């Protein structure tokens, strides 16, 4: 990856993080922690990896993205807004009555959303169906699904994984945001899913584990995805929950609450400083 591309992605990710804080602050609710940990992969997907067209959100031959951990919609909305699917200013309407940016993604309301999600475990099943449909139609379409590490405690996830391997869906990329925290505490204490990599391999996946907050590592993972044939692909991303905002990092309490006035100012000041340094 060139230095220019990496800087562009870092700028994009920082703007996504600012959008997450802006949205959850104005909503007075939402899920900033897991949205922030996923900001870098959102930036990579929409800034480099996927074939999408903001001017034609329903383009038939576009790649598809399913946010299986649908509560992290603030991050996806910020990625779409900064890509040009809708105005960045609209992020302030998150969860407001009448807004098309609700607490979970809706494919019927929001440009760029490929699947309505929210009930954990269901998104990956839909993604697998999309990937199989693309195979059936002989379409060169890749399908990407982002799951939470707490989400994979759901049994339906593993049914979808079994299905994906059975149908050799090498156009499916399942991405697991492994930040180690869920609403009730540490994932390992609530219902430990480890060893995730060995379980995925046993279910027929090609698997790589990377630092999900590092663009060089993400590039390595997606390059391997494109080289893999005959089996579905999984990326286990080790990330930091709340990444980019000092007082939110690795703090389970920021799974599902919004910053107050003081916290909002601290977060936006930190992110603005990061953006200014990147754009210098």
Please provide a brief summary of the model.
This protein is of the alpha/beta class and 280 residues long.
Rg result: 17 Å
The N- and C-terminal alpha carbons lie at a distance of 20 Å
- Report the portion of residues in β strands: 5-15%
User: Which outline best applies?
Assistant: globular
Helical element count? 10
Low-confidence runs: none
Largest sheet entry: 5 strands, parallel
- Given helix and strand content, the structural type is alpha/beta
What labels would you give this structure?
five-stranded parallel β-sheet; alpha/beta; globular
Notes on the protein architecture:
By secondary structure, this protein is of the alpha/beta class. The protein is 44% helix and 12% strand. It contains ten helices and seven strands. The protein has helices spanning 3-27, 32-37, 39-49, 73-83, 123-136, 155-166, 187-191, 196-202, 215-227, 261-279; strands at residues 64-67, 143-148, 172-178, 181-182, 185-186, 206-211, 233-238. The strands form two sheets. The protein has a five-stranded parallel β-sheet, with helices on both faces. It is globular, with a radius of gyration of 17 Å. The mean pLDDT is 98.
